[in-house]
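Predict the 3D structure for this chain.
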Amino acid sequence: PPPPPPPTRPVLSETFEAYILYNITGQPTQNQSVLRDFNSQKQLTATPSQEVLERYDLGYAYTIANKTCTRSFIPLTMPAYWSFLSSASFIGHSMHANISVDLWNSVLGTVTVTLAVRTDNSSVPVYLDTFQGTIRSTSVFESFQPVQCLEAYHFEVPAVCSNVSGVRLPPRLPTVYLAELEMDGERFFVLSDGDSDLTLQEHHGCLDVVHKTTGGAWFGWATAASSQLISHTRTSETWSLQMGSHGFVRLTLENGVPRRLLQQHGHLHSHDYTVVSFWDKDFPLALC
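Done. Predicted structure below.
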């Protein structure tokens, strides 16, 4: 007889409360409690030694240990916890602590992720294994409770963090990328290898070089260390770099991806580009 079909792909809540036993190869197991509210872009992870509050709505992560707070920069968009499941493959059944589990596996570049969910309830995770090289990290879900939302007080920035200074840093774009841009109905491509930028036109299914400039002439200018954040929402941010007394370059990103580039040269000359597509790998076209 033919083999039975694989079970239905798991669908797990992105907003949840969980108690986790967490272990990295060669290190002692830690107890963690995780409160995650995907709708409000906030997450709190607590261990006996420290708390990490990630406020994606603010762009900061706060780490509190020994009554001391440090602040680091994170994206303005919270990554989905279970995003790998969309490309995961069912690899079989197993047993864990006398519980029957279904195993789902996904390879993300150099990282391999394996999720075990209950066979009798695939919306409940049992453990999550992550492999990268020789490093293995395992999260065992002692409890997992999906919730509609969490009380806001869980994610309040502690008073000990209120005076922590810091300035939001410009985003770091890939060194190598291919971008398709449009201005006034005309489309062209920009290819950067970190040292130089090539302006290209598509010709018979490949890209012809039109112009060559030094590296950073496009998006690199707008993400220089001296750029300033002039506006942001939960999913977008705009950075501006002053170029002389009457010029500037502004770059708008959505979910970390460039979407608009505005170049102003003096009072009368401006170029407003829409970034149609942006790739940092698997370029759809090659040079002619």
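The radius of gyration is 23 Å.
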